[in-house]
Amino acid sequence: MMLLRSRRPFAVLALALCAPLAASAAGTVGVGTPESCTEAALDAALAGGGVVDFDCGALPVVIEITAAKTIADVETTLDGDGVVTLAAVADVGLFTVASTGTLTLRDLTLQDGRGAQGGAIANAGGLAIFDCVLRDNAAFPAGDGGAIHNTGTLVVSRTVLDDNAATRGGAIANAGVGPLLVEDSHFVGNAASDRGGALFTNANNLATASRSLFEGNSATDGGAIAVGSASLAVTVRNSTFTQNAADDRGAALYAEGPLTVRNATLASNRVGGDGDGGALWRSGGAVRIGNSILAGTTAIFASDPFAECGGSGITSDGHNVVEDASCGFAAAGDLADTDPALLLLADNGGPTRTLLPVVNEVSVSPAVDAGDPALCDALDQRGAPRPRDGDGDGEAICDVGAVEVPEPAAAAGALAAIAALAARARHGCV
């Protein structure tokens, strides 16, 4: 729950999720064998709420679901211990959380949901998801929120949302009355036929996406995230957007409402032949960006470069590195027509992959030690501390973009350790 303690707007939700559950009929699904883990056993364990676990044996098990499970007037927690998949076998969702219900999911996989609004989960109450996988869900036949449709309060942490689909919000559609927090999560391959391939938010609430990777999502507008005109406040921090695609506008981010971007890396996203604004498009609302990288936008079916920014009225809070001049940024520390010199997407530590700026004997990325300390959080996308002296000049300044380059000595030590392990492996040592 560290992610909740660090953000005051979510304190009320954190207390609610961490508070002791009221006395209820908690249960266990199964008696030690895969065959004992059935939908009927799940229904029995869910009755009355409480903490529900699974005893299905050591191997992964799939429980087929024929009707969505309604959570109302109770607090319920399901813990799948990383081996349980709930899979819809009909055109139904998996969970419906009423306004009077609270549901927490841990270490579960939810797949093949086909709810009308929210393919896997329709939430009107309190929903918290930790260390889960939500994949191959769809809002059927033409609804919003391929995995989750939220009109309540939502926390998604350390979770993978993969190949979900909807009209708006391929993975998540947010119209909640309470806060939305996404953290340390991976959105990959989600699709929306309209807006928000990964996330569409259009709610009078606080919505934050932090320390997450948005990769290969697609939509007509807002390949990764689309912000609707009714939004109160949307913030993106310490997150990477890459290989997302929009047929029209904003392959990474599309805003009709207020959006603030801090220490984001928006690189190698793609727009349609007549589209624009590969990294960021604004058509309304107060849109601000600082300490961020915008680079590498190309056409969907070609390698021709496209403008990083589109629309008008995007405000720079300074210290952005932009590969072209389309954004028109001229605040303190802004660098236009500048290649940020990024490495390929890779596991550089932390829960998600990142695009690390280049630092070697030959060159140093212009993003290194070039950020505004006033805009930087204490942790980067990986959860590594900011700032660090990435260029080795004796002064620690936070980097531009989602990830903080380690000090040269630390980087050299890590490379030496990797080389030593490789040498041991070549000689048959473990």
Keywords:
mainly beta, 21-stranded parallel sheet, 4 helices, disordered N terminus
Principal-axes shape call: globular
* Euclidean distance between termini CA atoms: 35 Å
Question: How many strand elements?
Answer: 37
Work out the helix count.
4
| CA-based gyration radius | 22 Å
Largest sheet: 21 strands, parallel
Give start-end ranges of low-pLDDT stretches: 1-25, 411-419
Explain what this protein looks like in three dimensions.
The chain has 430 residues and is mainly β. Helix content is 9%, strand content 33%. The strands form 4 sheets. The chain has a 21-stranded parallel beta sheet that branches. A 10-stranded parallel beta sheet has the order 4-6-8-11-15-19-23-27-31-35, with no helix packed on it. The chain has a 4-stranded parallel beta sheet with strand order 22-26-30-34, with no helix packed on it. The longest helix is centred in the C-terminal third of the chain and has 19 residues, at 408-426.
How do the strands and helices of this protein lay out in sequence?
Elements: H1 2-5, H2 11-18, E1 27-29, H3 39-46, E2 50-54, E3 61-65, E4 69-71, E5 75-88, E6 95-97, E7 102-111, E8 121-123, E9 126-130, E10 133-135, E11 148-150, E12 153-157, E13 160-162, E14 165-166, E15 172-174, E16 180-183, E17 186-188, E18 191-192, E19 199-201, E20 206-210, E21 213-215, E22 218-221, E23 225-227, E24 233-237, E25 240-242, E26 245-249, E27 253-255, E28 259-262, E29 265-267, E30 270-271, E31 280-282, E32 287-290, E33 293-295, E34 298-299, E35 309-311, E36 314-316, E37 321-322, H4 408-426
